[in-house]
Amino acid sequence: AQTLPVHDEL
Amino acid sequence: MNLFRLGGDLAHLVSIFILLQKITANKSAAGISIKTQILYSIVYVTRYIDVFTKWISLYTFVMKLIFIASSFYTVWLMHNTYKSTQNPQIDTFKIRYLIGGSIIMAAIFNHKLTFNELVWSFSIWLESVAILPQLFMLQRTGEAENITVHYIFALGIYRALYIPNWVYRWIFDQYFDYIATVAGIIQTLIYSDFFYVYYQRVMKGKKFELP
After folding, report:
1. Is residue B206's pLDDT more than 80?
2. Deepest in the core among A4, B1, B24, B202, taking most CB within 10 A?
């Protein structure tokens, strides 16, 4: 499964 | 964190304070689209909805609060203190289409059908088109007392530096987010159109004005 990108950008 | 993203975020922060400084120094919001500023406030609130629930870093936490506070303060100043300097007749872009379009894009392109992911995607798509009311206003009037070239330049640096940031993260962090990247490239293209319009209408226009 495609890992969910962590939204760590502003 | 990489220097591209840090530089981009700082340029973004500078652009917000350049605009605020200009408005308060001139005691006027003439030539600024309040619709674009409202859209930016919506972008920050929806993007940072988990600012108190999801901890990334102190930097991220502080920057999110600054972006939300400064954008709301800008809208508040324009809507209250300097309302008399507003000319609603020229700020006519229908932002409902931008908001509606962003909702549709979020429904189609998202990483997961969860509330947070849908809201995040909505915010990403909305940010990419949020400058359009300002662009159309500038195109119509050509006047830009408060939209200075520094503001536009800082805004451009913010958007432009995020692209090498994504390249860097794709190579070194094996991180790639197609939604942020596609919407970011669209936003960069719209910003470059903004610069072109500014250059044509304001920079060149000014030369003709001089006797």
Report:
1. no
2. B202
Q: What is the ipTM of this complex?
A: 0.86
Is the separation of the CB atoms in B39 and B126 below 8 Å?
yes
Contacts of B187 (CB under 8 A, 6+ apart): B127, B128, B129, B131, B159
Instruction: Give Cα separations from A9 to B63, B81, B116, B124, B128 (angstroms).
Output: 11, 33, 15, 11, 15
**Residues 51-70, chain B: which have Cβ within 8 Å of A?**
56-57, 60, 63-64, 67
Q: Check A8 against B56: CB less than 8 A apart.
A: yes
Nearest CA in chain A to B45: A10
Which token pair is B112?
A: 């997961």
